[in-house]
Amino acid sequence: MANTQPHILSVPLPQNAHRWAEEFARQQDNPLKGKQVYLNTLAVYAVHSYLKWLNVETALNQGDSWHRGLRAIFDVADLVLPGVGKLECRPVLPGEVAIVLPPTMTQDRIGYVGVQFSQQLDYVELLGFLPAREMTESPAIVQIAQLQSFDPLFEIIQMRTLLINLRQWVTGIFQPDWQPPELVFANNFRSSSTMTRPSTNSISRAKVINLESQVLLLMQLTPTDSEVFNIRLRIYPGNDSIHLPPDLQLIVLDEAGNTGMEAQARSADDWMQLEFSCQHEEKFSVKIVLGETILMEEFVV
After folding, report:
1. How far is the CA of 75 from the CAs of 28, 97, 101, 107, in angstroms?
2. 170: closest CA among 207, 201, 208, 206?
């Protein structure tokens, strides 16, 4: 998968890619729409194949491009990267110097990949990647000359997989170490007796934090009617202790690393809490400090 230009990658198109493309194209009302769907399908499959070769997880059948009704109505060429976001994989025909993005395309893409087709459609060239944050033109046009290497994509993948995506909690997807509170608190009777009851539309998860002393962290997430989530953090003593360790600190940091709020345990506290709100795509970190030990968790809403 190489080419003479630094960030252009040649990717073969296997027969099963063409079978998918032919099946999806046959479902369309006219030949022009069928051609669009055919090329979109091959473009998405090629990027999926390349990322799979690099052991990057993809969910080929979860994108709008793999949804029969959506691809019939819209010009979609998206590839889902679980826990990361969607890539837009746009076909580039010979002689084209720019990619005009469809006006109906949603704005939740992490970036755009240019996929150049050969005449025989037996392989494609991945021309490069442009992060969505660098999109400056309106209407949305990606100049082929703007496309970069795939290094920024891999940086985005690495960064986002380290983040805990709280919107996934709303859909029932949780990280393994964040458990239902009743399981985490089952062996901590004093903590469970003081645990707050969540409201009916809240999602609650808890985890064990091992510092110099064990504590239990509870996060309660409550969606509102808008794009705002209310968040409550509580820390309880672990190991069936009565009180929190003195001087234990709970700190919330914004995306830039600035302290937004903090709380510190006193000698007789059996729990402490912070409450705040976050908007869609807002990032924050939770920092727990006890003596020389620091634990940090990063989140995105």
Report:
1. 12, 19, 9, 14
2. 201
Name the pTM for this structure: 0.60
DSSP conformational letter for 273: E
- H/E stretch holding 286 reads strand 283-290
- With 0-12 / 13-18 / 19 or more C-beta atoms within 10 angstroms meaning exposed / middle / buried, residue 158 is exposed
CA distance 266 to 43: 59
Q: Are 206 and 220 in contact (CB under 8 A)?
A: no
Instruction: Report the pLDDT value the prediction gives residue 137, as an integer from 0 to 100.
Output: 62
Residue 237, Cα to own-chain centre: how many angstroms? Answer: 32
How would you classify residue 50: left for phi > 0, otherwise alpha for psi between -120 and 50, otherwise beta?
Answer: alpha
**What is the tens place of the pLDDT at every residue in 194-219?**
555 656 689 999 999 988 788 999 99
DSSP string, 69-105: HHHHHS---EEEETTTEEEEEEEE-TT--EEE--TTS
Six token digits for residue 28: 């369309």
In 3-state terms, what secondary structure has residue 59?
Answer: strand
Strands (E), 145-191: 164-165
Q: How many CB atoms lie within 10 A of CB 52?
A: 12
Place of tokens 């198109």: 13
- C-beta separation of 278 from 231 below 8 A: yes
